[in-house]
Amino acid sequence: MTNVSHVVHELTFGDNVKRKLATQSGVFPGNFLGSMAPMDGNAYMTHNLHEAHHHYLKLVSTNVHSYQVLQSSQLALYREDKVPEAKFIIDLSPISVSYQRTGRRW
Questions:
Q1: Res 62: pLDDT
Q2: Minimal CA–CA distance to 32: which of 43, 21, 42?
Q3: 28 contacts: CB under 8 Å, gap ≥ 6
Q4: Which residues are paired to 68 by β-bridges?
Q5: Cα(44)–Cα(75) distance, rounded to whole angstroms?
Q6: How confident is the model at residue 72 (pLDDT cuts 50, 70, 90)?
Q7: Model-level pTM?
Q8: Which parts of 25-82 fold into alpha helices (H)?
């Protein structure tokens, strides 16, 4: 019997200092910080035997030397003769996102 319930306290990619500066600069959308660490503070509980969460993360690079993370998770069921395991599958996106502030003179 294996219980693979887990809590993700912090999962980050990229430079923390530049991430903090980027969120204070006003150039980025309001949800930018949340998209850099969407799993932080989440609990993934399994309630039955032979279950485990699998996490799929796509990392998209940005112009602040950090990554936006597209995350999805699913609960996987295992056969009785297999030991469940929590998985983190990470994929680097070939596309990069560049942010810049523009304005319009009225």
A1: 82
A2: 21
A3: 22, 64, 99
A4: 60
A5: 9
A6: very high
A7: 0.77
A8: 32-36
How many C-beta neighbours within 10 Å does residue 90 have? Answer: 12
Residue in this structure with the two tokens 């969407």, named with its chain if needed = 38
Residue-wise pLDDT tens digits, 10-60: 888 877 655 566 556 666 666 777 788 889 899 999 999 899 999 999 999
Identity (one letter) of the amino acid at 9? Answer: H
Regarding beta strands 6-8 and 42-44, do their DSSP bridges make them parallel or antiparallel, or are they unpaired? antiparallel
Question: First vs last Cα of the chain: how many Å apart?
Answer: 67
Distance CA 52, CA 89 (A): 14
List all residues 6 or more positions away from 9 whose beta carbon is below 8 Å from its beta carbon. Answer: 40, 41
